[in-house]
């Protein structure tokens, strides 16, 4: 039978006009969330990304029902769980979602298996028999790669293993939506990488919608189908990793996602005049603009190149980074970072070089916007 046509049915989480202020000791208030709008489709892996204090945890906890926003609306699976104007605020335990915390939040006096079984035992409105529950627990533990550790207590497990238990506990309910609050930040780099890959595989397999908080942009790029970049409680951009990297909506997003070189420019015929000469671009952002380009987009050459723009400078350092070689180029007052993939021995310290730029690789942002962000 065909499902009825409803616009909300494919939306897993819909956040509209959400606002939340916190009161400081001195009585003043800070907006932790400032008019956030996000529509997350079913099966997406959405990452909330931003620096410390930008409001990502508060936004996640609002979806979970652990914070009460001031105003706005939240739906989960088409059901309104919060509506400030209508006075709706569904309790955390009645929202159809699971959450994985940074701190694992395991019961120390319960075995791993008991920790995973806990949400099943305490599920509202469903009486399950013991063997079905135990089977579900065993499946969940196996799914996260610790099928043999169910009898261990949290204190007997490594950080990575404890986080796997927490993950199994989130999966055991078969929730459509799983919220993650920096779940990988307490495990070491190697384990984190493994867990990321496994988490993605599990998300594809179980088919849940993930909403994942991190301040790590590489983690965001790797996990996300779409990234919501937050600044001061506002969603600056909501797009695929490709979009936020290649077409950042604001200077803030451009600088937060990846590395940039920066030049100040004044509008001229064909582009912007900088301290290094004319940088050609058809993008226009007012009389004075900040021009940014990624380190991998500068092309080094000994002779003046016939790219749209060419900036003269000299190499002051060469750093081999494994995947690429970083050339630091002093160009007038500017210290530019240029990346060449692999190991490059084309230029050495002291060499005069040109940095070639294609027109499409120059990102242009209005200058006064940058000043507002200071
Ligand atoms: P982090 O990565 O450091 O956890 P975040 O992006 O998750 O940061 P939030 O924890 O959501 O940011 O905090 C957003 C803002 O709200 C910050 O200015 C913070 O100081 C403030 N804030 C958060 N929780 C409270 C609280 N319980 N009482 C008062 N202010 C709070």
Automatic annotation (TrEMBL):
Residues 13-257 form the ABC transporter domain. One of its GO terms (molecular function) is ATP binding. SMART domains: AAA (SM00382). Keywords: ATP-binding, Cell membrane, Membrane, Nucleotide-binding, Translocase, Transport. It comes from the Bacteria. This is ABC transporter ATP-binding protein. It comes from Arthrobacter koreensis. The lineage of its organism: Bacteria, Bacillati, Actinomycetota, Actinomycetes, Micrococcales.
């Amino acid at each position: 039978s065909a499902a009825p046509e409803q616009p909300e049915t494919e939306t897993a989480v819909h956040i509209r006009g959400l606002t939340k202020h916190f009161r400081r000791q001195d009585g003043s208030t800070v907006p932790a969330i400032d008019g956030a709008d996000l529509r997350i489709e079913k099966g997406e892996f959405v990452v909330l990304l931003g620096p410390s204090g930008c409001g990502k945890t508060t936004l996640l906890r609002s979806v979970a029902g652990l914070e009460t926003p001031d105003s706005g609306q939240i739906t989960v699976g088409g059901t309104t769980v919060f509506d400030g104007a209508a006075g709706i605020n569904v309790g955390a335990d009645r929202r159809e979602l699971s959450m994985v915390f940074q701190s694992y939040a395991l019961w120390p006096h319960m075995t791993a298996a008991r920790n995973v079984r806990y949400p099943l035992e305490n599920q509202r409105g469903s009486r399950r028999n013991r063997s079905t529950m135990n089977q579900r627990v065993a499946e969940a533990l196996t799914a996260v790669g610790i099928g043999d550790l169910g009898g261990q207590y949290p204190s007997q497990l490594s950080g990575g293993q404890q986080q796997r238990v927490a993950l199994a506990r989130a999966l055991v309910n078969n929730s459509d939506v799983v919220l993650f609050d920096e779940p990988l930040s307490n495990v070491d780099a190697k384990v984190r990488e493994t867990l990321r890959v496994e988490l993605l595989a599990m998300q594809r397999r179980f088919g849940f919608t993930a909403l994942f908080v991190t301040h790590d942009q590489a983690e965001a790029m790797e996990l996300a189908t779409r990234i919501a970049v937050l600044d001061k409680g506002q969603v600056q951009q909501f797009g695929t990793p490709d979009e936020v990297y290649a077409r950042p909506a604001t200077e803030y997003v451009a600088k937060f996602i990846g590395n940039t070189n920066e030049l100040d420019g004044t509008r001229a015929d064909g582009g912007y005049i900088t301290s290094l000469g004319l940088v050609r671009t058809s993008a226009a952002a007012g009389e004075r603009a900040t021009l940014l380009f990624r380190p991998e987009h500068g092309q080094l050459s000994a002779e003046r190149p016939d790219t749209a723009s060419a900036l003269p400078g000299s190499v002051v350092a060469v750093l081999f980074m494994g995947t690429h070689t970083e050339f630091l180029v002093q160009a007038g007052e500017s210290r530019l970072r240029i990346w060449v993939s692999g190991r490059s021995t084309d230029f050495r310290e002291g060499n005069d070089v040109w940095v070639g730029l294609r027109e499409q690789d120059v990102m242009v942002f209005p200058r006064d916007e940058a000043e507002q962000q200071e």
